[in-house]
Amino acid sequence: MKGRLLPAGIFLVAVAGQVQAADLTISCGAVGAELQLCKSGVERWEAQTGNSVEVVSTPNSATERLSLYQQILNARSSDIDVFQIDVVWPGMLAPHLIDLKEYLPQNATDGFFGAIVDNNTVEGRLVAMPWFTDAGILYYRKDLLEKYDLEVPTTWAELTEAAQTVQAGERDAGQKDFWGYVFQGRAYEGLTVNALEWIASYPDGGTIVDEDGEITVNNPQAVKALSHAAGWINDISPQGVLNYTEEEARGVFQSGNALFMRNWPYAWDLVQSEQSSIRDKVEVAPLPAGGEDGQSAGVLGGWNLAVSRYSDHPDMAADLVAFLASPEEQKRRAIEGAYNPTIEALYQDPEVLAAVPFFGTLYDTFVSAVPRPAAVTGDNYPRVSNAFFNTVHEVLSGRVTADQGLESLEGELERIKRRRW
């Protein structure tokens, strides 16, 4: 370990009291089984190569993690060699990352989803390897829908009605803490994702900013989407959902206290674990559409592996990245943790499909997910996202109406746009 104090109070300490520095340091998330799967993958590479790696846990909030990364990279620090980066970050972090094409074989990205490789290629430089992909999906209690003779909802209105029905019935039966729907409502990147899924599911709801850089978020359908969502608070969703990230939502759902949950695929392995109180009572479906003329709109997520330009060992770090993103390692992570591979062939792998059946049934959801407007807004994306999720949080909290909030947001985005995205 390097034994240095990093921003946000992260400290790399020696293993077993030894003062022996690791060869490399990698940052990994800790949502669900993410950290443990990262550690076990790293251990496999260590056994294969004889090198040593320190795994550093970073904040679960993508917003907080980006801030930490920017502090480290702007300081040109070598404290972290390999960064786990969000799918919307390659453009803004590219100046600090090596071109993996210079370190990996020419066929290193063969078989990977081309759209993700393109997303991670900035001005011809491959700045990150695709590690796992994501799209928002709907988890539901199949036993409770059967109990109340209800169908899986295909629109948000149907979800609302089903949630109200089951919530009332379960509370009457004595489960006073039961709720109809939980999601990620804290003011952070996760709320940008949830709210984009709502507005993009309505016909002509827009995508905040379109591919041409035009601001589309202030429109009647987006107002309708956010107004509908605001109506969930203290009706089918608890007030506390306004402070939920992925794990808080999963905690409520997995404890048996919610009918529906919006989350990423990683939650599947956990809600189906032996420790889960709802094991074998859960199924997944595409997120609902915004009415009969709308469409399901799971937002594209996922994480990639990048190597810092300031690493003391870029060759070694690139080799670690190649190993962790390999077909064998992605297959293991899919089976053990339900993390979506970025290699197309694994979606036809019998062992993967046996472990996570919806990788097959929801394949179209994953390959046609809605992107966030990171490419068109570039370095200004964090400002755009912050403005959006703060506005949505105000609407959900009842401090402003949806039309007031979106009109104000449009003005703020226009000011950001003048900085040239």
TrEMBL record:
<dbReference type="GO" id="GO:0042597">
    <property type="term" value="C:periplasmic space"/>
</dbReference>
<dbReference type="InterPro" id="IPR050490">
    <property type="entry name" value="Bact_solute-bd_prot1"/>
</dbReference>
<comment type="similarity">
    <text>Belongs to the bacterial solute-binding protein 1 family.</text>
</comment>
<dbReference type="InterPro" id="IPR006059">
    <property type="entry name" value="SBP"/>
</dbReference>
<protein>
    <submittedName>
        <fullName>ABC transporter substrate-binding protein</fullName>
    </submittedName>
</protein>
<feature type="signal peptide">
    <location>
        <begin position="1"/>
        <end position="21"/>
    </location>
</feature>
<keyword id="KW-0732">Signal</keyword>
<dbReference type="Pfam" id="PF01547">
    <property type="entry name" value="SBP_bac_1"/>
</dbReference>
<keyword id="KW-0813">Transport</keyword>
